[in-house]
């Protein structure tokens, strides 16, 4: 058979035309070409691009053989009808033989390859047709390759073909668009679609191509009724017309449930064998998508479920939700039981189930978003009906930075005092103090009060309230970090990690690791930070669930490391991934994603985009009811950083002074728990604005105490930045120490790998001297760089140094990374500035 790379394209006239706005799938095409299997089988529901993929494959890998494309349109046909179609296509007489032998005679003894496409093979074919094709596959005709698209896996001897290496099969999971292809499709069909609408449509369609196209028809991806009409008609024709009445009614019911299984269906439809009914829906490819690798749980594709739900009457839907609620709670599926109780109009039952959730539940998957959604659907009287419910809600509100609501929630715990026993009284008071201490710290009100509450809570909290204990240790560690109490930081974080591990909580171990990584970043220990970050990704990967809250934060920290090293493309990918995860679970750390994107755009000189990210960040915080002062200072700080890159220093001073007033005076605020450098960086920007507007003495007066403070706190990267600013101020004042301080700061920045800082120092090479830069590149890298500067090509460099072209490319990438640039011309200019080249 012809192989990829040795074939000529099949003339497009032999194949159906590709659809308008076609998005090529080269990865899947190459996957089909990678194995010269006798049967290539594509089995998936309607609209997953099966026919289009076969078409695309044959256009590039069909060779010079003959293509016969039979569109069976899902209609059951007899073997005789199939053979008649083939004889007509081949311009041959019908053999006077039984069907299996006739089919083999038509397709055998060919002197050229034959690609036979059975497009939309019927889901319920006559047994004779299946037997006929099964016998054909058993013969393994040497020049025949069969390509089949179907919505129901055919009843052929597929295991035998698989063992013989003659089967290549793709299902809906492989055929669905990945995020990259999805974005390209949206860009082609509706490029004006906003990011939030894109995310919503992605979650609803999960890469189902037809669903994306139909939802975007008319230019609105939001699921407006006009677009639903198109999707409804599509499902009527392509799905419902192929189902029996009882199968359709079962599907309408399943569209109301968050997940389904054969066991659940059996319990819901005992009278009509629910298991068999569900298995028939799976066989019909009725958009029941697997949720696990074992095929135990499924879910109707969200966009399909949304269209089908109205087909079930309200009374029937209520009965279904009540029955499902009982089944879920009996199986220990508490979250699903809560959702079904709410859908059935039983908030009391939902509140009762809510109390059963475990301690680490809040930080897993997308549970924070679920809790906040349930709060909006449950009456306040129920949410406040027990101390456990109040405590769970208070922690959720604290984690989501909705601090005014958290304050009110915590205050209501006092209504349950005194408790019936002294032990329960101490337990409730300790939980109140833990919540109160974390609240005060998040509000940056008083470090003294926050520390007192957390320490007193730790003295009384029982061991089984370990979530509150962990949050207290984490809060105390972050307060100590902002105060320079390094021993206290290490002790608290170590204790918290030990508790998390003793309780087997990977989620809380990763949560505490995030605190440790933050500490390492502030100290400039980037290698250790990356190692711990990698370890945390491995830990969270051990869980089968997708823990959006922690994954989002890990990706955002990874983006920060990329930004420090000035790897902007890597940072952009990590920022988008982290932001997507954070938004999915209503994590306020989405703010870090917006801030990172604003910084990235500013470094590229795209200032309008940078300010747009900051506006979107503010809007996001408003929509999620985040406490204003948890984000306003950070937004203003990043705005000033963008303005600084624009050189608009006159606009920075007033903003920096407003922020500074919160951190000086008789009642200064403590630094924010998650951003302890905010007051320090604000003072640095204020000093730089004074310097740039001609007030070098004022800049010096601000920078000297700032430098001392950063040294005490051991925030080494920030020390480098302050030293560079101070050196610039001394230079403006004519001080002899300026050059020495600048050289010291730049050498330190190079040791720490602060490419982001070095890129903004145009005279870094002259200040630091060539001797201080010698260790930046290896001897071989300097040799490659010298030849690049002389205009040698990769091939010429390889020949000169006796290394391969791939090795040259590897050295070039390392050089670009170390110098904080993207192109070789930039690398040469940067190296000259650093004194690495003459």
From TrEMBL:
<dbReference type="GO" id="GO:0006355">
    <property type="term" value="P:regulation of DNA-templated transcription"/>
</dbReference>
<dbReference type="Pfam" id="PF25873">
    <property type="entry name" value="WHD_MalT"/>
</dbReference>
<protein>
    <recommendedName>
        <fullName>HTH luxR-type domain-containing protein</fullName>
    </recommendedName>
</protein>
<dbReference type="InterPro" id="IPR027417">
    <property type="entry name" value="P-loop_NTPase"/>
</dbReference>
<keyword id="KW-0805">Transcription regulation</keyword>
<dbReference type="InterPro" id="IPR041617">
    <property type="entry name" value="TPR_MalT"/>
</dbReference>
<feature type="domain" description="HTH luxR-type">
    <location>
        <begin position="770"/>
        <end position="835"/>
    </location>
</feature>
<dbReference type="Pfam" id="PF00196">
    <property type="entry name" value="GerE"/>
</dbReference>
<dbReference type="InterPro" id="IPR016032">
    <property type="entry name" value="Sig_transdc_resp-reg_C-effctor"/>
</dbReference>
<feature type="region of interest" description="Disordered">
    <location>
        <begin position="1"/>
        <end position="24"/>
    </location>
</feature>
<keyword id="KW-0238">DNA-binding</keyword>
<feature type="compositionally biased region" description="Polar residues">
    <location>
        <begin position="1"/>
        <end position="10"/>
    </location>
</feature>
<dbReference type="InterPro" id="IPR011990">
    <property type="entry name" value="TPR-like_helical_dom_sf"/>
</dbReference>
<dbReference type="Pfam" id="PF17874">
    <property type="entry name" value="TPR_MalT"/>
</dbReference>
<dbReference type="InterPro" id="IPR000792">
    <property type="entry name" value="Tscrpt_reg_LuxR_C"/>
</dbReference>
<keyword id="KW-0804">Transcription</keyword>
<dbReference type="InterPro" id="IPR036388">
    <property type="entry name" value="WH-like_DNA-bd_sf"/>
</dbReference>
<dbReference type="GO" id="GO:0003677">
    <property type="term" value="F:DNA binding"/>
</dbReference>
<dbReference type="InterPro" id="IPR059106">
    <property type="entry name" value="WHD_MalT"/>
</dbReference>
